[in-house]
Amino acid sequence: MKTSKFLSSAVVMAAVFFTTLSFAQKNPMVGGAAMYPAKNIVENAVNSKDHTTLVAAVKAAGLVETLQGKGPFTVFAPTNAAFDKLPAGTVETLLKPENKAMLQGVLTYHVVAGKMDSKAIAAAIKAGGGKAVLTTVQGGKLTATMSGSKLVLTDEKGGKSTVTIADVYQSNGVIHVVDSVVMHK
Length: 185
Known about the structure:
The protein is of the alpha+beta class. It is 38% helix and 23% strand. The protein contains eight helices and seven strands, in the order ααααβαααβαβββββ. A seven-stranded mixed β-sheet has the order 2-1-7-6-5-4-3. The relative contact order is 0.17.
């Protein structure tokens, strides 16, 4: 009887371990850092060497507490290289304290309320006949489409951004890494 209980306990513990391990392995590395599903958006983003500009912008905009909140949020996270594509001086101008409201608008345009992984977005695109219109926290619209196997976002100005790393799960949502900054009207 004791052997049976021990064996049952061992099987349950092994199942929990392998379930946890397989869940942890689902997240891709981002910016050379592991992304942990038990951590929130900000806790993971600060570890990515590819998102130092985004993290600085989130801090300057006063959005750290919000993005550490319960959510859930879907964040389209531009890389440093994405910010580098903006006209010279744009990032520096946005980071100035007097431009905090403008910076908040740019950043919240990259956030959709709810947790939309790539499967949910693909289903919305299919249901929309080839496109899905996503309403951002900022209030603007992003249009999601597929280009081959790649998810592409089109902003209100006609700019395009491609998801380069999808489905980085967080405790309070999901991040999709994008290669360009999207801009609202």
